Amino acid sequence: MEMETPIKVLLVDDHEMVRIGLAAVLGTEDGIEVVGEAGSGEEGIRLAQEYHPDVVLMDLVMDGMDGIETTRLLMNQFPNLKVIVLTSYLDDEKMYPVIEAGAFSYLLKTSRASEVADAIRAAARGQSVLESQVASKMMNRFRHPQNEAPAHNDLTDREMEVLRLLAQGKSNQDIADDLIIGIKTVKFHVTNILGKLGVEDRTQAAIYAYKNGLAE
User: Fold this and answer.
1) Which of 139, 158, 187 is the last residue of a domain?
2) What is the pLDDT of residues 89-102, one digit of tens each?
3) Can you tell me the distance from the alpha carbon of 108 to that of 187, in angstroms, rounded to the nearest whole number?
């Protein structure tokens, strides 16, 4: 039987013990390979250029270049890279800028090792993960003002169903199974949703859904 290609993960954190712990834990997970460890944002960019990882686990607060700027530079160079923020911080001034910079998922360092591994696998499938406290903060902060007509008013009832499932991190196949429709139909709806909301990708659509109180 042909072995599946492992998900290549790069660790970027300025605390050596954190990197050692993560590398040890993820090294026991099937289908995940830690290809490099960086102690700074600058080193993270260099190692990403060398190893071309699929997923980067990114700390936010580091000496020199912080996680926000590192994420922004990585996404400019590697648009398909999935950056998962793994941090102790829930501060608005850190959380929202790194998401806007292109972070795919946001986890706290209090997350269980299994949750981090699941988030890596989800990212490899194109599914973003937001820690529950992060999702709650986003929904509370970004509710759309009632006196403005939100873009989602143009969505059909079916498109709203697809958007809610998309915001839960479900894949096109999951959405097709849940709604009992074809996957081509799901792709058609997703394309329409992105166009109507004026966003570029599924992550931004999910963020929009949380901002406007459309996702549970």
Assistant:
1) 139
2) 887 778 888 988 99
3) 32
